[in-house]
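hiii so my PI (J.) wants the whole complex modelled not just the main chain, which honestly fair. so below is everything: two entries, each one labled with what it is. i double checked the lines twice but i was tired so who knows lol
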Amino acid sequence: ETGVTQTPRHLVMGMTNKKSLKCEQHLGHNAMYWYKQSAKKPLELMFVYNFKEQTENNSVPSRFSPECPNSSHLFLHLHTLQPEDSALYLCASSLGLADNGDEQFFGPGTRLTVL
Amino acid sequence: ILNVEQSPQSLHVQEGDSTNFTCSFPSSNFYALHWYRWETAKSPEALFVMTLNGDEKKKGRISATLNTKEGYSYLYIKGSQPEDSATYLCALGGGYGGSQGNLIFGKGTKLSVKP
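here's the output for the full assembly
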């Protein structure tokens, strides 16, 4: 039990679909993150929320839309994606911000395939 | 743009061998250096977070050192076991504008330990 859950674990969608990824953490953390892992690339930070406020948006295209209704839940809304968006999407949480020295706890990820 | 380099890309060792990996990063605006272990089909798991130059941390057979002035960190595994087989990621917290949660990950070192 990592304390960070993600649903769904696998998702196949067409380019015109709208879907959402969900992340929930049961650790009492204040910061939550979305990462993208593409083949042969390093983990890429997409968004950071700290106390429900977005602190970082790493030049992510607007077809990815994050939502953080409270410190325990994080969503990634997807619409009109491209095949190159196919990747593993990881959610993570930390007590304080990770670049300040707080370790991150990762969820199992959602494997997304865009047809 | 901050760049985190890890070497080697992959490593094959025999059970019982000791091994080490390198993480190199720009030394300016350093906040924190993270090490994670990522086993296949699992979530990345934090090993160490180091914030001070000269930091040395140890967890069982695994240890890490940090030199922020010259911009590198070493991860050591003593007496490798097959269960140590995983990809080892380092991530740098740093940059301008204060702490915003941003971690820059390296591509990782993939370790395979043969029984």
